[in-house]
Design brief:
Blueprint: H1 35-46, E1 51-55, E2 64-70, E3 77-84, E4 87-92, E5 107-108, E6 113-114, E7 121-122, E8 128-130, E9 149-155, E10 158-162, H2 169-180, E11 189-190, E12 196-200, H3 204-211, H4 217-220, H5 222-227, E13 234-237, E14 241-247, E15 268-275, E16 279-284, E17 287-297, E18 300-309, H6 323-341, H7 357-375
Antiparallel strand pairs: 1-10, 2-3, 2-5, 3-4, 4-9, 6-7, 7-8, 9-10, 11-18, 12-18, 13-14, 14-15, 15-16, 16-17, 17-18
Helix pairs in contact: 1-7, 3-6
The structure holds FE2/S2 (inorganic) cluster and fe (ii) ion (FE2).
Residues 95, 97-98, 100, 115, 117-120 line the site of FE2/S2 (inorganic) cluster.
């Protein structure tokens, strides 16, 4: 065991995460507080995984384009999604001449993508087409003059992208599709007035840790606890995702499950899917709450709640009734934990084998992705 003051800069969380939860310790506190570890996290976890970008509402039309920055200002990569006859592609949004941004607002591409600086043109597939005043230029154009193409994937109406994916998107979403793919998710309607953004003073992973265990529900969420059957709490672990099933207590609202559902016969109040590293897909009888947990700095995090409504009449009932109240209760404790993990007297903790399997899974994946870096 490390001594109380033996933090050192050659951080290797891998040492700490035993695959056996009964022996494992949690991530070192330093993971949540060190600027250097945070930078490693951006490159080795966020750049190598899939990020939720948007739904397809702004990309329905043929030749529509949607510019965005990958992970805000932290991995400031200007990219653009383009609908090419129903197929969504993702390109670098940077002109291959001298680096101007090509598309600044969502728009429809008329003929070519034309750079506003010196008129370089690219076709809808990102291929260089034309540039004025290139007469006499040798060895031009080459593949270097085309726009770089970025990995993109679509699941239902949702679009994901990755700068350097370590695995295929379908590995990420497979179990979600198998379990809740029967719901008419594509018909769920986005509701701006039910969607929210929150900012917290805590590391992004502390927010995920808290989400990944129902252990705290009776302590922190009195109202939520009243509609869930805490004793039936369980977690299913997949490769890059996991699922917490919210079981309704006696009379509370639950899903009307089809016979071919694996859960048929159970009183499911909510499916809480966590998708590595920072996405939550919470399905309630009223619809879907997508939560995106975006780091801003080592101890600042943005949380977006996007609501997609299936059945309006169920909006104010059951486990998904007052998400705002539950969120504030979670934020309060997560921000307290951020103050706790800077303590020189706190180094790491242990997992409850029955209640913290989800957190253990998350820490194991973090360790694995950071360890790739330390071995290079
Ligand atoms: S930077 Fe785009 S044409 Fe010059
Ligand atoms: Fe909570």
């Amino acid at each position: 065991m490390l001594g109380l003051f033996s933090y050192n800069d050659t951080f290797n969380p891998m040492k700490k995460i035993d695959s056996d939860i009964t022996k494992a310790a949690t991530l070192q506190a330093k993971f949540y507080t060190s600027e250097n570890v945070f930078k490693d996290t951006l490159e080795n976890i966020f750049a190598k995984n899939w990020q939720f970008i948007t739904d397809d509402s702004k990309l329905k039309e043929n030749r529509s384009a949607f510019p965005f920055q990958f992970l805000g200002n932290l991995l400031p990569e200007p990219l653009v999604l383009v609908n090419n006859e129903g197929h969504i592609n993702c390109f670098s949004n940077v002109c291959t001449h001298r680096g101007n941004l090509l598309i600044n607002e969502p728009c429809t591409i008329k003929k070519n993508i034309t750079c506003g600086y010196h008129g370089r043109q690219f076709d809808i597939c990102g291929k260089f087409k034309f540039m004025p005043k290139t007469e006499g230029m040798q060895n031009f154009p080459t593949a270097q003059d085309d726009l770089a193409e970025i990995a993109v994937a679509k699941w239902k109406q949702f679009i994901f992208a990755s700068l350097a994916p370590n695995f295929e998107f379908k590995e990420l979403i497979k179990e979600v599709e198998e379990r809740v793919g029967w719901m008419p998710i594509e018909t769920f309607k986005y509701r701006e007035n039910l969607s929210k953004e929150y900012f917290i003073t805590a590391n992004w992973a502390l927010y995920c840790d808290n989400y990944l265990e129902g252990f705290h529900i009776p302590f922190i969420h009195e109202d939520l606890n009243a509609v869930l059957d805490f004793n039936s709490y369980d977690v299913e672990i997949f490769k890059y995702a996991n699922l917490q099933l919210g079981i309704a207590s006696d009379k509370d609202i639950c899903f009307d499950l089809p016979k071919n559902s694996k859960d048929y016969g159970k009183k499911i109040a909510a499916y809480y899917f966590w998708v590595f590293p920072n996405l939550m897909l919470n399905f309630y009888p009223w619809g879907l709450s997508v939560n995106i947990i975006t780091p801003i700095s080592v101890n600042q995090t943005k949380i977006q709640f996007k609501s997609y409504v299936w059945d309006e009449s169920k909006l104010n009932s059951g486990a998904g009734a007052d998400l705002h109240k539950v969120e504030l209760e979670d934020e309060k404790v997560v921000q307290q934990v951020q103050k706790g993990v800077v303590s020189r007297f706190y180094e790491y903790g242990r997992f409850s084998p029955s209640m913290e399997k989800g957190v253990h899974h998350f820490h194991t994946l973090i360790s694995r992705f950071l360890d790739v870096q330390t071995k290079k």
